[in-house]
Write a structure and sequence with these properties.
Blueprint lengths: L3 E2 L10 E2 L6 E4 L7 E5 L6 E5 L3 E5 L7 E2 L8 E6 L5 E5 L4 E4 L7 E3 L7 E6 L5 E5 L4 E4 L7 E3 L7 E6 L5 E5 L3 E5 L7 E2 L1 E2 L9 E2 L5 E4 L4 E5 L7 E4 L6 E5 L6 E5 L4 E4 L7 E3 L7 E6 L5 E5 L4 E4 L14 E3 L4 E4 L4 E4 L7 E7 L7 E7 L3 E3 L10 E10 L2 E2 L6 E5 L8 E3 L4 E4 L4 E4 L7 E7 L7 E7 L3 E3 L10 E10 L2 E2 L6 E5 L3 E6 L7 E2 L10 E8 L3 E9 L4 E10 L2 E8 L6 E9 L3 E8 L2
Parallel strand pairs: 1-20, 2-28, 33-40, 42-49
Antiparallel strand pairs: 3-31, 4-5, 5-6, 6-7, 8-9, 9-10, 10-11, 12-13, 13-14, 14-15, 16-17, 17-18, 18-19, 21-22, 22-23, 23-24, 25-26, 26-27, 27-28, 29-30, 30-31, 32-34, 34-37, 35-36, 35-38, 38-39, 38-40, 41-43, 43-46, 44-45, 44-47, 47-48, 47-49, 50-55, 51-52, 52-55, 53-54, 53-56, 56-57
Length: 602
């Protein structure tokens, strides 16, 4: 048998006292008998064992305990359940009993020993172990139908056994004895000598890591499968009896004078907790990091649901933004709420229904805001949201429910004027389109090309109209224009493309120098559609008329009828309201008359 000489390394750790309020609550068991052990296969259903054939059961987490009938008279020291129906009890004179119906009835099993059995542990429903006085270890591979005595190699009282899997397990006992097997108990190796303390009930978190409490308040820990053990100071001088680690970092140890200590960093630091009892707490068991029970003398069972800390549960948070009933909210909003006292985290839910039967997004965060990720929300929908606060003690009620509506998709603007295809706009036309309620601004483009390959003018404006600045457009040219809307969420598609033609009509003097003679020039262009220019010369001041006739000689329109000074003139005539055909333009003065033929071709 190999002996490993323990090298003690005392780690001095900070001892922190909890507040006067504790997280442990005394449960009523209806007995004053010593409660040696507790087993909870789930958070509601639990069993407890004790002296004087005591077997207790609860189906509501320990709020109420009832007595179960025992098939023998024995003092039970340990109970273990692999599921809510199947469990074993061990105790005095080698007693082992088993139930397969959640304690309704029990069957006596032959242990092949008459010594006191102190603790039992099962790997699964078939493979289990029990240890006891005088170095006794028994094993079953068939659910207890047969128990086989194993050779422990020691004669001291063995108090605790814990298996990680079917092959690897540890046993602790008096006189600092720690045993280990890696072959299912076929052989046992003595790991430690030199720890001059009686050892309590160990806790094992993995094949390499184990914790053993001792009677002087020390906690022994190994991280290499028992080859080396470190003595950790627990910060208390109370003798320690039972250890339990529900997770790798969080562990609890119970002991004398009603003591419970807790570590949240794998035993580096231990914090003393307040309990409602002063007698020894012989057993401790946690079903998760927060919910656990401890038992001991005088029929004691205590319970915590907050990890023994006793922090007040936080109040429901108050929501901040988006404001209730708000609209046009981003698809990735920042949800905000006020902090709740004692809260360490917050859980937010977003739903399309006020009863939250369909959750579109949820998250747990440690701060008081949350950015909804892209892809969670859709446009033009109403969403409901709520938040609750949590700490180690539990969660608050949900906040009040608020709602918000997401943005409506930006549609392409509707163009209004000038109407599509209009001829006759000024050089600085006003372009107008319909208002969109959720738009922040609009972008307009003007081009001589329908594909906007060349931009003549562009601008981003807030109002829904735009006056094209002077110098951008030219007379007699056709322009195409379009508009899109934008807000903080993005831009709409472009509107449909409309067109207009700049056509500035009327007379203008192109040259103030007096020509040598009267003259009427042929109009340009000719044929035309819909406008053409008529040019004429006046050598001296004279009354002048410019008249358009149709092919039948009827007056269509008098363009000029006034006295003009000497010079060269040009008149732009817009014939868009007339039909295609032959027209005549006649210039008349007191000294000169001339007519030209024009063709309007639409």
């Amino acid at each position: 048998m190999k002996t490993i000489i323990l090298k003690l390394l005392i780690l001095f750790v900070v001892f922190i006292s909890t507040s006067s309020y504790g997280g442990w609550v005394l449960q009523y068991t209806g007995t004053s008998t010593f409660i040696s052990s507790i087993a909870f296969p789930n958070e509601s259903t639990g069993f407890a064992s004790g002296w004087s054939s005591t077997i207790l059961k609860t189906t509501n987490g320990g709020t109420n305990w009832i007595f179960l009938s025992s098939p023998v008279s024995a003092s039970y020291s340990s109970i273990f359940f692999v599921d809510v129906n199947t469990g074993w009890l061990v105790g005095s004179e080698g007693t082992i009993i088993k139930t397969t119906n959640s304690g309704v009835s029990w069957q006596i099993q032959l242990s092949n020993t008459s010594t006191l059995l102190m603790l039992t542990n099962f790997v699964d429903a078939q493979t289990g172990y029990a240890v006891g006085y005088s170095g006794v270890i028994v094993k079953t591979s068939n659910g207890g139908t047969n128990w086989v005595v194993q050779n422990s190699g020691v004669s001291v009282n063995l108090l605790s056994v814990k298996f990680i899997n079917s092959q690897t397990g540890y046993v602790t006992g008096d006189l600092s004895r720690i045993l280990k097997t890696t072959n299912g108990g076929t052989t046992w190796e003595s790991l430690v000598s030199g720890i001059f303390n009686n050892l309590g009930k160990l806790a094992v978190t993995d094949a390499n890591t184990a914790y053993v409490p001792a009677t002087d308040g020390t906690v022994f820990k190994t991280t290499n499968g028992g080859a080396y053990w470190v003595a950790q100071s627990s910060g208390t001088s109370n003798y320690l009896v039972s250890a339990n680690f529900p997770s790798a970092s969080i562990g609890y140890i119970s002991g004398g004078n009603g003591s419970v200590i807790k570590s949240t960093n794998s035993g580096i630091n231990w914090v003393s907790q307040t309990t409602p009892v002063t007698s020894e707490l012989h057993w401790i068991y946690f079903i998760n990091n927060l919910t656990g029970w401890s038992s001991g003398y005088n029929g004691t069972i205590i319970k915590t649901t907050d990890g023994g800390i006793g922090y007040p549960i936080p109040l429901a948070p108050q929501l901040m933004s988006p404001a209730n009933n708000s609209s046009n909210i981003s698809l990735t909003p920042n949800m905000q709420w006020y902090s709740s006292t004692n809260a360490t985290s917050y859980h937010i839910e977003i739903s399309t229904s006020p009863n939250f039967n369909t959750i579109v997004d949820s998250s747990t965060v440690t701060n008081t805001n949350y950015n909804v990720p892209s892809g969670k929300l859709n446009i033009a929908l109403t969403y409901f949201w709520r938040v609750k606060a949590s700490n180690i003690s539990g969660s608050s009620p949900w906040s009040v429910v608020w709602n918000f509506s997401t943005q409506i998709d930006l549609l392409a603007p509707v163009l209004l004027s000038p109407s599509n295809g209009y001829v006759g706009t000024s050089i600085t036309p006003t372009l107008d389109w319909d208002t969109m309620a959720i738009a922040n601004n609009y972008t307009i483009q003007v081009s001589t090309l329908a594909n906007f390959g060349v931009i003549t003018d562009s601008a981003t404006v807030i109002p829904t109209q735009y006056i094209v600045p002077n110098g951008k457009l030219q007379n007699f040219l056709t322009y195409f224009w379009r508009v899109k809307a934008s807000n903080v969420m993005g831009s709409s598609p472009w509107s449909s493309v409309w067109q207009f033609t700049v056509l500035v009509t009327g007379i203008s003097q192109t040259n103030g120098i007096a020509p040598s003679d009267y003259k009427l020039y042929s109009n340009y262009p000719n044929p035309f559609n819909p406008a053409t220019k008529v040019k004429f010369d006046i050598p001296k001041s004279t009354p002048a008329k410019l008249i358009v006739y149709d092919a039948l000689g009827r007056t269509v329109e008098t363009l000029v009828n006034k006295e003009l000074p000497a010079g060269t003139y040009e008149y732009t005539w817009n014939a868009s309201k007339y039909n295609s055909g032959i027209y005549f333009i006649r210039f008349v003065s007191d000294k000169y008359t001339e007519t030209k033929r024009m063709v309007l071709l639409k």
